[in-house]
Design a protein that fits this description.
Binds to the N-terminal domain of the chaperone ClpA. Helices cover about 45% and strands about 20% of the residues. The protein has helices at about 35-45, 50-65, 75-90, and strands spanning about 25-30, 65-75, 95-100. A 3-stranded antiparallel sheet has the order 2-1-3. Helix 1 (about 35-45) runs antiparallel to helix 3 (about 75-90). The model has no long low-confidence stretch (mean pLDDT about 95). The structure holds L-tyrosinamide. The site of L-tyrosinamide has 13 residues, from strand 1, helix 1 and helix 2.
Length: about 100
C-alpha cells in the first residue's frame, strides 16, 4: 500500500437478523365425559401446573369451553399436546388439547 492510500473503515455494520421463535399456546377443551380429577392429573403431570393452577385451568375450560394452559415453542407445545392426548386416549377419554400459534 502506498503512503497516500486512504484506508476507510466500512460505514455499514453487519447485523444478522435474528427472528424470535414463534410461540404456540396449548389450549384445553371441555367435554362431557372426562372426569375433572383426570384433567387435573394430566395438567399436573404433563404441564407441571401444580394443584391450584391445574384446578383453575380445568374449571375455566369446564365453564367456558376452553382455556389456554401455557405457551411454548412449537416443538414443546406439540410434544406436550401429543403426550397429554395419548394419556387420555389410553384411559378411554375424549380429552382434547390443541397447539395454536400466538398472533
Ligand atoms: N366437563 C367435564 C365433567 O364435567 C370435566 C372437564 C373439565 C373435562 C375440563 C374437560 O377440559 C375439560 N366431567
Amino acid at each position: 500500500m502506498g503512503q497516500n492510500d486512504i484506508v476507510s473503515t466500512p460505514q455499514t455494520k453487519v447485523r444478522p437478523k435474528i427472528e424470535k421463535p414463534r410461540l404456540y399456546k396449548v389450549i384445553l377443551f371441555n367435554d362431557d365425559y372426562t372426569p375433572r380429577e383426570f384433567v387435573q392429573m394430566i395438567l399436573q403431570a404433563v404441564f407441571r401446573t401444580g394443584d391450584s393452577v391445574g384446578y383453575h385451568i380445568m374449571m375455566t375450560a369446564h365453564r367456558k369451553g376452553s382455556c389456554v394452559v401455557a405457551v411454548y415453542t412449537r416443538d414443546v407445545a406439540e410434544t406436550k399436546v401429543k403426550e397429554a392426548m395419548d394419556y387420555a386416549k389410553d384411559a378411554g377419554f375424549p380429552l382434547m388439547f390443541k397447539a395454536e400459534p400466538e398472533e
